[in-house]
Amino acid sequence: MDCEYWGKPVPGFGDPEARVLIMGLAPGAHGSNRTGRPFTGDASGKFMYPVLQETGFANQPNATDCNDGLQLRDLYITAAVRCAPPDNKPLPSELANCAPFLDRELQGLENVKVIVALGRIGFDAYLNYLKRLGLLTSKQPYVFQHGARYQMPDGRTLLASYHPSNQNTQTGKLTRPMFVKIFKEAARIASA
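Below the sequence we write its predicted structure tokens.
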């Protein structure tokens, strides 16, 4: 908390015409909170960006800072919460405070066909967005599990993935082949 960059909000990033959206949790405390760009300069990004390059969504496998030349193709990345939450677990009030920003961002991404939710919080954030729009009355039919796929009332497809955090990748809960499969499926659905 004594770092100059602590607590600064991080905006979404990517192609504004994207057909695929990644819905993350929140900025990493010493990654995107420090660099100002989602999944940049942290372990999650080191796992994710090579997969995005392999599946055609990124021009390079590395994301170190905002001036590293990274460009996303047909992909936009955002998060449920704009500032790094304590212990990486946002409070309901933090999610509620960030909801208007998320709503405006999602409404501006008119071409999105597929949402890849990284983790339960990202998954619930999209469901809650649909509830705020009045398109969803209950989240009960939508169960988070890696690889789950749902056709949503707004016509989009929701894909669920474990979050690429160290906690998941270092334990083998999320492997590179599992993650590649999710993004290959997202690309296939988006281009259909």
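The mean pLDDT is 89.
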